[in-house]
């Protein structure tokens, strides 16, 4: 990878086979991650998506337009070497999962939270044994150790590439359940965004949306969609 503002120095990016995977070459030269590792990914379609990002770069490189490349670099540079720390961080999302903290009032908000969130909480319990406690209010509630152990097992079962996407979705949404559901195909990116933004959407409907909130909303939607696209490309 290269620093923002670096002048574009290549004419063509192309996806090519590399060992058991695929890589991106710039005019025949291999792209490397920020840590200096080969940017090699497990699928041809993912490598082609990376090449599209590199080919779409303006005259000065702008990493903001390279979400797939950033996720691939994270999988290669961070997940493999920092996996235990990342798994621990993800488990903390289960301890304070957004979907477990509900409103009592107003009634229409509480009803919407139940309709959107409860099926996902139920799914996590039925599919993974992650039977989290749901409460009213915002005060932290301890989660059963059995549920946290089940969440840890679900996280550890993922390979580095899926874990990269899971981590990004959980960070964007504030919910391990939403992240697991999207990773498993239980919901799509739009549904994950709806669940993550439910409270804020409700407030926006009542009071309107300010520009700053709109920018945050667009960024969150982009992060979730990028992770979903990354998963789909890696698995295809």
Short characterization:
The protein contains eight helices and six strands, in the order ββββααβαβααααα. It is of the alpha+beta class and 236 residues long. The strands form two sheets. Strands 1, 2, 3 and 4 form a four-stranded antiparallel beta sheet that branches.
Q: Radius of gyration, rounded? A: 20 Å
- Strand portion: 5-15%
Which segments are poorly predicted (pLDDT under 50) over 5 or more consecutive residues?
none
Overall 3D shape? globular
Order of helices and strands: EEEEHHEHEHHHHH
The assigned structural class equals alpha+beta
The DSSP helix count reads 8
User: Largest beta sheet, briefly?
Assistant: 4 strands, antiparallel
What is the helix content? 55-70%
- pLDDT averaged residue by residue: 94
Tell how many strands the DSSP assignment holds. 6
Annotation keywords:
two-stranded parallel ribbon; 8 helices; globular; alpha+beta; four-stranded antiparallel sheet; 236 residues
Describe the structure.
With 236 residues, this protein is an alpha+beta fold. Helix content is 60%, strand content 8%. The protein has helices spanning 44-55, 67-95, 107-128, 145-156, 160-173, 176-184, 189-207, 211-235, and strands spanning 13-18, 21-26, 29-30, 40-41, 101-102, 135-136. Strands 1, 2, 3 and 4 form a four-stranded antiparallel sheet that branches. It has a two-stranded parallel sheet with strand order 5-6. A hairpin with a 2-residue loop joins β2 and β3. α5 runs antiparallel to α8 (211-235) and α7 (189-207) packs antiparallel against α8. The longest helix has 29 residues, at 67-95. The radius of gyration is 20 Å and the shape is globular. The relative contact order is 0.12. The mean pLDDT is 94.
């Amino acid at each position: 990878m290269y620093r923002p503002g670096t002048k574009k120095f290549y004419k063509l990016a192309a996806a090519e086979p590399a060992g058991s995977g695929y890589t991106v070459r710039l005019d025949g030269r291999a792209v490397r991650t920020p840590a200096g590792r080969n940017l090699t990914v497990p699928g041809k379609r993912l490598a082609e998506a990376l090449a599209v990002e590199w080919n779409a770069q303006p005259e000065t490189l702008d990493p903001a337009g390279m979400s797939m490349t950033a996720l691939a670099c994270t999988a290669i540079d961070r997940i493999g070497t920092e996996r235990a720390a990342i798994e621990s961080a993800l488990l903390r999302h289960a301890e304070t999962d957004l979907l477990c903290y509900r409103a009592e009032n107003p009634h229409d908000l509480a009803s919407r939270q139940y309709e959107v969130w409860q099926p996902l909480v139920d799914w996590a319990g039925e599919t993974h044994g992650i039977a989290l406690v749901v409460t009213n209010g915002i005060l932290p509630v301890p989660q059963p150790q059995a549920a946290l152990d089940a969440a840890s097992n679900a996280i550890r079962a993922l390979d580095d590439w899926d874990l990269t996407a899971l981590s990004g979705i959980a960070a964007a949404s504030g919910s391990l359940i939403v992240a697991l559901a999207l990773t498993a195909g239980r919901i799509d990116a739009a549904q994950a965004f709806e669940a993550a933004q439910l409270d804020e959407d409700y407030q926006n409907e009542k009071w309107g949306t300010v520009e700053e909130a709109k920018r945050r909303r667009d960024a969150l939607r982009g992060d979730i969609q990028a992770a979903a696209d990354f998963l789909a490309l890696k698995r295809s």
